[in-house]
Amino acid sequence: MDVNKILDILAETYPQAACALEHRNAFELLIATILSAQCTDVRVNQITRRLFARAATPEDMVALGQDKLRELIRGCGLYNTKAANILAACRVLLDKHGGRVPGRREDLEALPGVGRKTANVVLSNAFGVPAIAVDTHVFRVANRIGLSNASNPRQTEEQLMAVIPRERWSHAHHLLIFHGRNLCKARKPLCGECPLAPHCKYGLERKDAASGAHGGSRTARKHKGRLAAAKERGKQHG
Ligand code: SF4
């Protein structure tokens, strides 16, 4: 399996692939990522636009207080827990890190509400540290393609780091998420439209992809068509 080829195809399909959570700095990204648990990025962005207009620093957030914060983030689910975690994390930032988000994994993971996935998102997007945050899309898509065969996100991360060149880790995370949202959907992957079908373990097991993989020039035409269609879809749903 040529992992660079797979990533090249995804990069061509989703040239806009990047962090979908709106943020202006590491603090806003940290808060947005905490809020994104079991919530769509679109909804998180709607909430953070309002939230950051009121509170854009740890001091502001603590000053808001639990009740006001809960009210502002109510639309994103688990808001009681998220409000408590955000306030506790902001207090740690103020007490231990001078009000700034630390750029070390151990410090990030010590913050309330911050696990390995959130730390990876912040490290890679705010600090430029290569990392692969494994969410539900990355976990599913990597397993289907055959880049991993893991039973949990941590194992997926390890396996992806072993096969993907380090300099491509962070971007690979975004590409796999975009692909999971657009074509390699959870319930019904659209393999017939997927430009990765000739390279994907799951896709090759399906009849249409398997026949396409041996079809010579027909395969090339089919692949071009899939790539064009997938790019168009990626533009619409990116
Ligand atoms: S061929 Fe199907 S399973 Fe494989 S990446 Fe494409 S959509 Fe997902």
Describe the protein.
The chain is mainly α and 238 residues long. The chain folds into 2 domains: 3-16 and 134-237, Helix-hairpin-Helix base-excision DNA repair enzymes (C-terminal) (Endonuclease Iii, domain 2); 26-126, Endonuclease III, domain 1 (Orthogonal Bundle), CATH 1.10.340.30. It is 63% helix and 0% strand. It contains 14 helices and no strands. The protein has helices spanning 3-13, 26-35, 41-54, 58-64, 66-73, 79-96, 105-109, 116-126, 136-145, 153-163, 169-182, 201-205, 207-212, 217-237. Helix 5 (66-73) packs across helix 6 (79-96), helix 9 (136-145) packs across helix 10 (153-163) and helix 9 (136-145) crosses helix 11 (169-182). Residues 213-217 have low confidence and may be disordered. The protein binds iron/sulfur cluster.
Summarize, please.
This protein has 238 residues and is mostly helical. The protein contains 14 helices and no strands.
Name every ligand kind in the structure. iron/sulfur cluster
Low-confidence stretches at least 5 residues in length (pLDDT < 50)? 213-217
The helical percent reads: 55-70%
The CATH topology label of the largest domain is Endonuclease Iii, domain 2
Gap from first CA to last CA: 27 Å
CA radius of gyration is 20 Å
Specify the CATH homologous superfamily of the largest domain.
Helix-hairpin-Helix base-excision DNA repair enzymes (C-terminal)
Structural class: mainly alpha
Shape: elongated
How many DSSP helices?
14
Mean pLDDT: 91
CATH class of the largest domain: Mainly Alpha
Please summarize the sheet with the most strands: none
Summed up, the domain count is: 2
Summarize the helix and strand pattern as letters. HHHHHHHHHHHHHH
CATH architecture of the largest domain: Orthogonal Bundle
Number of strands: 0
Q: What share of residues are in beta strands?
A: under 5%
